[in-house]
Here is the input.
Amino acid sequence: MKSYQLSYKLGLKNDFKRIKEGKTELLVPSVSLSEKVPPKNPAFFNPSAKWNRDVSVLIYKTYASFSKNARTFADSICGVGARGLRTAVEVPKIDTVYLNDLNPIAIELAKESAKLNEIENKCVFDINEVCKFLNFEQRDVRKFDIVDLDPFGSPSPYVDCVLRSVNNHGLISITATDTAVLCGVYPNVCYRKYYGFPIRTDYCNEIGIRLLVSFIALNASRFDLSVIPYFCHNNLHYMRVYLKVVFGNSLANSVSSKIGHLKHCRNCNHRKVENLKEHNVLCEICNSKCILAGPLWIENLFDFEFVKETLNVLEKDEYLSSSETNYKRLLRMMQICKNELAYPFYFETDSIASKAKKSSISLDKVINSLIENGFKASKTIMNDKGFKTNASSNDIINALYK
Amino acid sequence: MKSYQLSYKLGLKNDFKRIKEGKTELLVPSVSLSEKVPPKNPAFFNPSAKWNRDVSVLIYKTYASFSKNARTFADSICGVGARGLRTAVEVPKIDTVYLNDLNPIAIELAKESAKLNEIENKCVFDINEVCKFLNFEQRDVRKFDIVDLDPFGSPSPYVDCVLRSVNNHGLISITATDTAVLCGVYPNVCYRKYYGFPIRTDYCNEIGIRLLVSFIALNASRFDLSVIPYFCHNNLHYMRVYLKVVFGNSLANSVSSKIGHLKHCRNCNHRKVENLKEHNVLCEICNSKCILAGPLWIENLFDFEFVKETLNVLEKDEYLSSSETNYKRLLRMMQICKNELAYPFYFETDSIASKAKKSSISLDKVINSLIENGFKASKTIMNDKGFKTNASSNDIINALYK
Here is the structure.
């Protein structure tokens, strides 16, 4: 179908373009390709979220490679359907993709794109409010194997609807774009949306992801559900978490042991997981008064078996991505992730240098120096200049600069 | 209609009885009047919750006396409809009562009772899962002025549905019957259901109510809503809170200032509101290691203007209750409540005596002694032997026994 025909069909004076992302044909509003910030009208499509969708396809494909139940996928706020359609085309094990959006033009575009990819028989479309779509579209309970939630702004008001809609051992993927809130710019807003306090630090993005995960875990636990992170990542504009959901109240009872606080010293850069039962506001190292982040997730953000499996999936299909650049980027990210130490915070080379009043040292050199000094150290996917280690901030400065 | 006719109509071998509670006729299963624990089948009716319903009628009537929007009431898990029907009959300002239960026999009984009271035209019936009833029964949004939630066990999984269903400046009433969880017997279960830790103390019921309120407040805040308690009470078998719901994100942002922790010393009985930013695990008085409850609601549990208004409503109608005994009990409770100090915990005469290794002193004498010694002191509706005061546990023992 040519673009002017579609414009005519939709009764609008908008132009649409046909593009290819990954292995998937997509009809998108021309304006979304030309404007700096893609507009909501006539329908939302964010071309710069291509990387985000490449990661999604990798994660869903990996999940489908071992899960017995990876047949249905719900793209609950799908816009023009980019993620859902790519999943339908590029993750063949999934046999039904549900695409929902409140905007009928977006759904009309998604339908046309489904035809272009010859996957109409795999797709079910809905025009509905997200919670109605997820929980109440049908009189009987309808649950999905994979559910994605990617709203404008905070996912906080919809997280319960996602959790109510997923099968046992299913996968949920949730995006938060209110990164300023989660990174500590508006702590009171963060508390009311994510039930924990953030702090503005050089590793605030990891704290933000941990707040998002604990918030989802707390919503799950009141439904007798537990979440277990498969993978989490972020960039400037969003944080995104992929979580396994497991049914059962005895596992859910353990949620309190997976949520805690981080203590941070603004004076000497010291940071540690803090047990409130033993809490001391003073820094163990320099005796300054510390600040506290949390409650937040203090367990792993990655399932290392799962991460290894993503590398197997990548090795088998070098076209699993929208470009060679992104394929290499996926490989690099997952290789770093595979070796990332499980400490719940990282240090950053520039901050350490600034604290030591010395010039910055390259990440590889920092990690080697720490290992030579008998510490554990690894890169982190959270920050290009970040590293995880069991060395304290003082240990690090001593190892690097003294 | 005679009871055998109804049994015949329902196609069951059950007997039903017609009783009167307050000003309202109710058809109830005979077995619910004879068994110690009223059974769920053929339909649930708890005769011993009469007091609870008397309080409800008083609160709803008071709310209706000043609110411009007190026209609709939703009894979301109504059983045979006792609370909803009493509200329809005894709170005339409410013009529509929605009664919902999953059990069709319960709804059939509620319908027959509505006829007996000649209020069929005020009643709308539904047989549905509670969240579907509250949020999705109609395609368009339907919100209520007053919503009641009184489930078997914990209200935790349904609280979001209640909050989604209430009008701005509306009233929600929520019952929790999992009092062992909220009072500290199962702290990990409490954390996953109410997002805070309880502690087993002589004032654990007040801590439980404060955990319940903060949990509801946190659910509200992610929808840009705030809750403000009108009234809360409890007995052995339940805790019950009546909260005003206000729309708007700027008020919602202040939720973090209304939620905090309580620090309790098992050694000397000292207790205080603890700011985590200044937290010290050691007791200010005896230097023992303390325990921590929370996060929980540290603001008022009562709106004192509202409580005064309940007394006005009671004065105007001496039949506002199911019995003279309960009328007097309501009066007494609200008079105590009107004068109750707003500290977030109370002391108990027996515990103080036991700590002092002396014999117990009557509540009135305790309060008089404290006031004579220059402290503030009041009774509390939370406990017949309880008192609130700005005196510390040591001050109290000194004032009473030294």
Notes: The mean pLDDT of chain B is 94. Residues 106 and 376 of chain B are 49 Å apart (CA to CA). The radius of gyration of chain B is 22 Å. Chain B is about 40% helix and 20% strand.
